[in-house]
Design a protein that fits this description.
76% helix
Length: 314
């Protein structure tokens, strides 16, 4: 008998291979989905269990591991039922502060900073004497971070921390007090604190020189700036010193020296502020055409430069 031919005949081996391919095509993606969902679920449960096991107050380990977001969640949950739990308030305040520092946008930071301040101020009311100096130091840092409208609060807390004998960050407190007083225009007080900063610090020395400038003690400003320029290895500090030295020359009517120094700065970095200041020098020399040229250069680099815009609109 003649064998019947089949057009779509597949051998048993071919059928097995085809079946494996279909199985793989269906099961592998399904397995991936299952593993992803399982991983997310286990991660959620893991975080939930991790948070839950610290609700009894043993969350120092979380803080030590720098899991500040988890510490804020745990302590916030504790405080909903026990709003005057001092330990929870302390850790909630510190964790919110450290978490705020890690956030990229000021809008996100301010929410955490407000919560940190609220918790730590409650601790002060509860009179936690053992930690008051440290708490006031952190409140000073918090209000400094919140910006210029809160610098008076920052100053109050930093000075309170010192009055309470807090020593762990004394040098930092001197520096921040100097900065805060300078930013609100109390340059005598700024200088008083900056001169207490210990150790070699080009930045604090530069701030002292700038404070001398604002006090119109130009000879002391130039002496400090020259001393920094002779020793600093930081290029950004050198540029800042040169900038303030040129401004000092302008205030002293040493126009040629100011022009030479601003041109040295501009040879290193094309700065809108340097062009603006150079324009002011030419203005004082009654060279209005050259002055306006410099202000236009400043606006080209920084279209919103208010000083240059105001000068060109006069």
């Amino acid at each position: 008998m003649k064998r019947k031919d089949y057009v779509f005949y597949h051998s048993p081996k071919e059928k097995a291979v085809r079946g494996l391919k279909i199985f793989a095509a269906i099961c592998i993606p399904l397995a991936v989905v299952v593993f992803v969902v399982l991983g997310i679920t286990l991660g959620w449960f893991s975080q939930w269990f991790e948070r839950d096991k610290y609700l009894n107050g043993d969350y120092e380990a979380l803080f030590a591991e720098k899991k500040y977001d988890l510490v804020t969640e745990v302590t916030a949950e504790i405080l909903t039922s026990d709003p005057f739990n001092k330990k929870a308030l302390i850790y909630n305040g510190f964790a919110n502060y450290y978490y705020a520092v890690q956030l990229p946008s000021f809008e996100d930071q301010i929410v955490r900073l407000d919560q940190a301040a609220a918790s730590l101020r409650k601790v002060r009311i509860l009179n936690e004497n053992r930690l008051n100096g440290k708490i006031d130091y952190f409140l000073g840092r918090i209000y400094y971070m919140k910006g210029i409208f809160f610098l008076d609060e920052s100053i109050i807390y930093f000075e309170s921390a010192l009055d309470l004998g807090y020593k762990d960050h004394k040098n930092e407190i001197y520096y921040f007090l100097g900065m805060a007083y300078s930013r609100i225009g109390l340059f005598d007080k700024s200088l008083e604190w900056l001169e207490k900063v210990e150790g070699d610090s080009d930045v604090s020395d530069l701030l002292i020189a700038i404070t001398y400038f604002h006090q119109k003690n130009f000879s002391a400003a130039l002496e400090s700036l020259d001393r920094i320029l002779a020793t600093t290895q930081q290029e950004d500090v050198r540029l800042s010193c040169s900038f303030w030295k040129a401004k000092t020359f302008l205030e002293q009517n040493n126009y040629e020296q100011a022009i030479a120094l601003y041109n040295e700065i501009l040879a290193k970095v094309d700065s809108a502020d340097a062009h603006y200041q150079l324009g002011l020098v030419y203005k004082e020399m009654n060279n209005i055409i050259q002055a306006r040229s410099e202000w236009r250069k400043a606006i080209k680099l920084q279209p919103t430069h208010m000083g240059a815009l105001m000068e060109l609109n006069q």
